[in-house]
Amino acid sequence: MDVGASNADSSIFFAINGAEKVIALEPFPESYELGKYNIKINNLENKVFLLPYALANYEGYTEFIISSDKPNVNTANPSPYIIGSGMKFEQKIKVPTISLISIIKKYNIDTIFLFKMDCEGCEYTVLRDLPADILNRIENIILEFHDYPKDLPDILRKSGFNVDYEDKPIGILKAYKNDKLIIQFS
């Protein structure tokens, strides 16, 4: 699963390297359209399913703020670090939201081998609010955080994950249930 898929480059990489199915979310309309195009020209429409949603812990809509300078930081949840960086957000749009529970039900997902999150702040509320039975379906997590990892390492450890990260404002957190994060590509 690819949350914050942008132009679908990671989703395509996962699909051409052995993933049977990739569910990808990208709420920013321009990135979503580019992602659809990239999936099509790579003939991966039967493997990569790009959805125009923001991941949240509820179904509905959220306000998404847009930066024309850096479209990869468009977000519904700007971190204090991003706000403090002087980044300018000039526009707001309304985007639909979907929960992980709904995705799992809709696509009949038993196990999520890799849960990649680059959602500019949604990782905190989404992971904090996940029921244990849903979190238990996830094998590996790679996420980018924007305001220190906060309580995410503790939440994930309590759910049986090993967790690696650097304690800094922006970074990558890796969580895995085996001895180490192993992603096998063919």
UniProtKB/TrEMBL annotation:
<feature type="domain" description="Methyltransferase FkbM">
    <location>
        <begin position="2"/>
        <end position="161"/>
    </location>
</feature>
<dbReference type="InterPro" id="IPR029063">
    <property type="entry name" value="SAM-dependent_MTases_sf"/>
</dbReference>
<keyword id="KW-0489">Methyltransferase</keyword>
<dbReference type="GO" id="GO:0008168">
    <property type="term" value="F:methyltransferase activity"/>
</dbReference>
<dbReference type="InterPro" id="IPR052514">
    <property type="entry name" value="SAM-dependent_MTase"/>
</dbReference>
<dbReference type="InterPro" id="IPR006342">
    <property type="entry name" value="FkbM_mtfrase"/>
</dbReference>
<keyword id="KW-0808">Transferase</keyword>
<dbReference type="GO" id="GO:0032259">
    <property type="term" value="P:methylation"/>
</dbReference>
<dbReference type="Pfam" id="PF05050">
    <property type="entry name" value="Methyltransf_21"/>
</dbReference>
<protein>
    <submittedName>
        <fullName>FkbM family methyltransferase</fullName>
    </submittedName>
</protein>
